[in-house]
Amino acid sequence: MRILVATDAWHPQVNGVVRTLTMMAQAAEAFGHEIVFLTPESFRTFAMPSYRDVRLALPRPAKVAKLIAECRPDSIHIATEGPIGLLVRRHCRKHDLPFTTSFHTRFPDYVAARAPVSEAWVWASLRWFHGPSQAVMAALSGELKQRGFANVVLWPRGVDTTLFRPREVDLCLPQPVFLCVGRVAVEKNLAAFLSLDLPGTKVIVGDGPARADLERDYPDAVFLGALQGEALAKVYAAADVFVFPSRTDTFGLVLLEALASGLPVAAFPVAGPRDVIGAADVGVLDEDLRSACLAALTISRQDCVAFAANHTWDASTRAFIDHMAILPIPPAQSEPVDVLAEQPSCVA
What we know:
Layout: E1 2-6, H1 16-30, E2 34-38, E3 45-48, E4 51-57, H2 61-71, E5 75-78, H3 83-94, E6 100-103, H4 107-112, H5 119-130, E7 136-138, H6 142-146, E8 152-154, E9 177-181, H7 190-194, E10 201-205, H8 211-217, E11 222-225, H9 229-238, E12 241-244, H10 253-260, E13 265-267, H11 271-277, E14 283-285, H12 289-296, H13 301-308, H14 313-323
Parallel strand pairs: 1-2, 1-5, 5-6, 6-7, 7-8, 9-10, 9-12, 10-11, 12-13, 13-14
Antiparallel strand pairs: 3-4
Helix pairs in contact: 1-14, 10-13
């Protein structure tokens, strides 16, 4: 099966959406499926103010239709609610093509943190966007159902345990090391972590529009910038506790990466970390984040590794494929087609 995934979030962005889609495409090959992407790379883009790594696509309906036709997908999945997602949704509705969507971020909370926009209005807009979807895939489905979303299905996330694993690494910093990984932006609530009176060292991995202000306000913290691959995995392994101060994330992939590296989690008792960790003794969730950080130091690192081992990208990808809707075959394609005759323009 060839699956076309339309996404406004793509490289060089470093976030959970891009990482999820990239890892899923790799895992799908083992199941005999091909995932191709319709991304901002196919369109003119412009830089988002204050977001150096984010470029917003300027797609045209005709080009979107052309790229979809060239890819000849068996299924279409819309991963984001941006300009590309909107035009692919429009194309599918116009041509009566079934499609699925996914819900990755608590967008209403992000908007509320930046502008005086009603959260109720944003939630209503999201219900409109996802309404025609055959399946709204979400890592945490309970809240969406409570907010009136239909056809919500569970799409679990995974972690690469060959990369993120315990190893002997020393950052040569005063211990214990309290680590936070993610986008350095207002919605991540990083000041709640950086303002804590903790022993040792606070380390931030990531970049974003709030970095300069936070570096100025918290000079004792160590900001390492954005890291990926082995460099990121080594920092995880060198830390003692992973701190997740966000109150708005739906499912933090960084939580699984930290746990796979042997790091216990300290976080607020909110939906994201609560639903990832559940009742497992691999983290401490407390409104007193400082108490959570200190208590997490006593948690077994091996228990964290064992917990993360149950979350694989193979299982995540299998669930995604099971939820896909199969497109009706147009009459013009009812006869066998030489798929090598025309190379698709979308990103494989």
